Amino acid sequence: MSAPTQPADQADDDWTTMGPRRSPRTWATTKSRRVTSTDALRVVILMTFVLLALIPVIWTVLGSFKTPSELAQRPITILPENWGLANYVDALGRFNFTVYLRNSVIVTVGATALTLAINAMAAYALAKYNFRGRTALFLLTLATIMIPLQVILIPVYQVVASLGMVNTLWGLIIPAAATPTGVFILRQYMLGIPDELIEAARVDGSGEFRTFLRIVLPLCRPALAVVAILSVMWRWNDFLWPLVVAQSESVYTLPVALARFNAEETVPFNLILAMSVVTILPVIILFLFFQRQITTGIANTGIK
Q1: Concatenated DSSP letters for 223-254?
Q2: Three-class SS string for 56-68?
Q3: Are the CB atoms for 211 and 201 separated by under 8 Å?
């Protein structure tokens, strides 16, 4: 006796209704749902803010190719008449730009390396070692975030002067090596590393420093990237402390040199814009190169 059969059209309907129906992916979202008016409005608002944020950068880049007469022209012209590199060549040859760039690179790289080393070791101790007063020490470290540099400027300068580091690059690198923000980011990330992994390394005979160097640091690469990019931005754009410590032109960094040129009787705005473009390019390139690690590090450290 044969089993009852269903009509062909009904069988087709049953086959198409099996499982959830999936809508096609849309341009505004990665989820499988259609674009709503709220999504479109959100994209328009975000793009508007992005354009507003990029206007000063775009104007600086375009202005770096203009002559002083073009910059003073009214009404303001958007595009330069000549796209040559004359302003960049003049800036590199007139203002000892290579000296200032070298000083900024040395200070930024040296301070960032010290920051990563000191902050990583401090964060490892606060995250993985049990000792009395650990929480109080961590809270005290976080409390220093609320102390601005202007409050401790004179005491720090006296310490640097007593060590003979005034008007030297070491005086720009060492004082700001340890940062509470870096300790906080790295500690929060290290709390997610299983303690069993570290205990297994100790059982296998690995020393504390080797465990920290070979196991903990490779796992903290996203958080280290976040601290590195923040340190580069702070050191590269720092103005107040280099202005106080650097007392000769041979120790000037780029922000101090730009401020010095702004104080001239005839301000060469076209050359200053060219120097500004060269100044901001390294930070932008570094951020674009490490943006994946930065996003992962911020997400995993609980910074929302």
Answers
A1: HHHHHHHHHHHHHHH--HHHHHH--SGGG--H
A2: HHHHHHHHCCCCH
A3: yes
3-state helix, strand, coil in the chain (%, to 5): 70, 0, 30
pLDDT digits (tens, 9 = 90+) for 228-251: 888 888 888 888 889 889 888 888
**What share of the chain has pLDDT > 70, as a percent?**
84
pLDDT, tens digit, 9 for 90 and up, residues 184-225: 989 988 988 888 888 888 888 888 888 888 889 888 888 888
Give the Cα separation of 209 and 269 in Å (integer): 51
pTM of the predicted structure, to 2 decimals? 0.74
CA distance 193 to 205: 19
Residues with Cβ within 8 Å of 210's Cβ and at least 6 positions away in sequence, in order, are 201
